[in-house]
Amino acid sequence: QVQLVESGGGLVQPGGSLRLSCAASGRFFSSYAMAWYRQAPGKQRELVATITSGGSTSYTDSVKGRFTISRDNAKNTVYLQMNSLKPEDTAVYYCNAEDTVIKYDYWGQGTQVTVSS
Question: Under a CB-based contact definition with an 8 Å cutoff, are residues 81 and 19 in contact?
Answer without folding.
Answer: yes
